Amino acid sequence: MLATEFEFVAPTELEEALAVLAGPETKALAGGMSLVPLLNLGAVRPRTIVSLRRLAGLRTVADDGDAIRIGASVTHAELVSNELVREACPVLANTAALLADVQVRNRGTIGGSLAHAEPAAEYLTLLSALDAEVTVRSAEAERTVRVRELAVGANRTVLEPSELIVSVRVPKVPPGAAAYIRYARVQGNYSTVNAAALLNAGGVVAIGGALPIPVVISFDEPNAVAEAAEEACREAYADPVATADYRRAMAGVFARRVVELAQTDPSAAVKA
Length: 272
Description:
By secondary structure, the chain is an alpha+beta fold. It has helices at residues 14-21, 35-41, 76-81, 83-88, 90-96, 102-107, 110-116, 122-129, 225-232, 244-264, and strands at residues 7-9, 26-29, 48-51, 61-63, 67-71, 133-137, 142-146, 151-153, 156-157, 164-171, 178-183, 193-199, 203-208, 215-219, 268-271. It is globular.
């Protein structure tokens, strides 16, 4: 049962949605996988909710030169099955297949997940490693934000209340250049710790679930990445799921394992 009353708006044009978002106490609703539970708990009490489901422009996937541009309302399931995503960035499609359960994959969206900024969310970690960008719109302006710079804390981002992620630009990744690995104690839960790797001229590893924001580590020597990850996560947090020491240690283990996975299993995404 919803804990509060609100006005529900379902525009068909992006400009209309942005105009409503410019008003006070307004929340955007994408797949609802994050917002609806918060509404039920009474943790958020918006005056107006703007549904994005009827905005066709946010449901597209397009070739963008050396990248693919994904509309913010593209669902996890659509990423899994989209031919362009599977060809241009298979690690993203394979990672999307690991999210939660089939119900969440059919409703949850890439833009909604990034905007929610859960510390151990799959896309936040993977797209930080790939150095993806989001395009952000308000009624007044448009700007681009690197995914690495999007989150500023647990469930907090640089987005203003009137701003909306409208698309995600993900660099194309050749086979054998990237991998993702996650561990969750309960099937369907967020990761306890996860890691993504991109191997090109040098190498990049991103760790999620250890700190409130993803940790991004550049490296030249793969043998040193585990130690570097543990050091970068020395201020790991604790919660009822895992201790800080566990998260710190697993950051090192997963950093090493995801680099090995990228070297041996092209574009792999696996559960530990």
